[in-house]
Amino acid sequence: MKAYLTRRYMFSASHRLHSDAMSPDENVATYGKCNNPYGHGHNYALEVTVSGPVDQSTGMVCNLVDLDGFVHTQILERFDQQNLNTLPEFTETVPTTENLCLAIYDILQRGFRQAHLEKVRFEETMMNSFEYAGGGELRR
């Protein structure tokens, strides 16, 4: 029997949406107020969904302590209270929430082995959310 577990985590980070490959006018036309040279911040809500069989002895898909520990050390400590533009994940990539979603999915996919990673979902604002389930297609 396969079951799904979704955990929600909160963190804050700032970014400036800007591409060096575009002119200043193109950046403003593309990113609008998010191209502010001083950046801006978000209080992100990250949802991580994993799946797997329900363990007969524990009754769980995975140990929540393991998932929370991995997310804390590999995701929250890395991204919370950071300027995303300064992080290695975004040296050549614009730190949009879409790209943040892909980066976090990749970290979880490579490192968390106690259950199958189904998807990650981000709420950037009340009006914007993004999710990625692997396979190259990001859903808004």
Notes on the protein architecture:
The structure is a single chain. It contains three helices and six strands. By secondary structure, it is α+β, with helices and mostly antiparallel strands. Strands 3-1-2-4-5-6 form a six-stranded mixed beta sheet. A hairpin with a 5-residue loop joins strand 4 and strand 5 (129-132).
Give the gist of this structure.
The protein is an alpha+beta fold. The chain is built from 3 helices and 6 strands, in the order E-H-E-H-E-H-E-E-E.
Main attributes?
alpha+beta; 6-stranded mixed sheet; 140 residues; 3 helices; Tetrahydropterin Synthase, Chain A
- CATH architecture name: 2-Layer Sandwich
| DSSP helix fraction | 25-40%
Mean pLDDT: 94
* Sheet with most strands: 6 strands, mixed
Query: What radius of gyration results from the CA coordinates?
Result: 17 Å
Number of domains: 1
**Morphology call:** elongated
Sheet with most strands: strand arrangement: 3-1-2-4-5-6
CATH topology: Tetrahydropterin Synthase, Chain A
The chain-level structural class is: alpha+beta
Q: Can you identify the CATH class?
A: Alpha Beta
Number of strands: 6
Flag low-confidence runs.
none
Number of helices, where a helix is a run of at least 4 consecutive DSSP H or I residues: 3
